[in-house]
């Protein structure tokens, strides 16, 4: 793989140890005297979202400060909280995609080497056979499961 594409990648090791449980979402309603009770995120009284023990997102959902924007802002806050919560799965998927990209890079290099017609004798071309057949064999090897 080229150094340029390596620079474009996110270093996924910085996220090691993050678990879905550590980022579970919990809604909070504030009641009298600063006390709070847990609620569902879809509860219209919900004003705060706890993201595990990592972060707390507060929003003026009830519109005390800016009534016209309360629900719109709450929707954005909720979407952001859900993104945080899904981060472990997104990181795992990105890691899987990086592995597939590396496999394709290896496959392209291998095919380039095998199908280098400038340095290939006629007998080697016959051994390789139809390039599309070779492509099928190699991709099934790299992309099983």
Helix content: 40-55%
**Integer-rounded radius of gyration:** 26 Å
Percent range for β-strand residues: 5-15%
Query: Which strands sit side by side, in order, in the main sheet?
Result: 2-1-3-4
The 3D shape can be described as elongated
Question: Taking all residues together, what is the mean pLDDT?
Answer: 78
Q: Quick one: biggest sheet?
A: 4 strands, antiparallel
Estimated structural class? alpha+beta
- Could you give the distance between the termini? 23 Å
Unreliable spans are 121-125
Number of domains: 1
Query: How many separate helices?
Result: 4
Order of helices and strands: HEEEEHHH
* Quantity of strands, as a count: 4
Give me the secondary-structure topology:
Elements: H1 3-8, E1 25-30, E2 36-39, E3 48-51, E4 55-58, H2 70-114, H3 122-128, H4 131-142
Antiparallel strand pairs: 1-2, 1-3, 3-4
Short summary of the structure?
With 145 residues, this protein is α+β, with helices and mostly antiparallel strands. The protein has helices at 3-8, 70-114, 122-128, 131-142; strands at residues 25-30, 36-39, 48-51, 55-58.
Describe the model.
- The longest helix is centred in the middle third of the chain and has 45 residues, at 70-114.
- The chain has 145 residues and is an alpha+beta fold.
- α2 crosses α4 (131-142).
- The protein is built from four helices and four strands, in the order αββββααα.
């Amino acid at each position: 793989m080229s150094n340029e594409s390596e620079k474009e990648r996110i270093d996924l090791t910085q996220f090691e140890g993050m678990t879905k449980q550590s980022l579970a979402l919990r809604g909070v309603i504030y009641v009298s005297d600063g006390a709070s009770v847990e609620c569902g995120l879809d509860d219209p009284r919900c004003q705060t979202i706890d993201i595990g023990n990592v972060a707390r997102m507060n929003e003026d959902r009830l519109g005390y400060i800016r009534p016209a924007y309360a629900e719109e802002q709450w929707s954005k806050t909720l979407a952001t909280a859900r993104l945080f919560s899904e981060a472990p799965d997104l990181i795992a998927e990105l890691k899987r995609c990086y592995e597939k990209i590396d496999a394709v890079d290896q496959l392209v290099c291998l095919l380039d080497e095998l199908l280098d017609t400038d340095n290939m004798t006629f007998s080697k071309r016959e051994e390789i056979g139809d390039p599309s057949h070779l492509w099928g064999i190699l991709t099934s090897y790299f992309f099983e499961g």
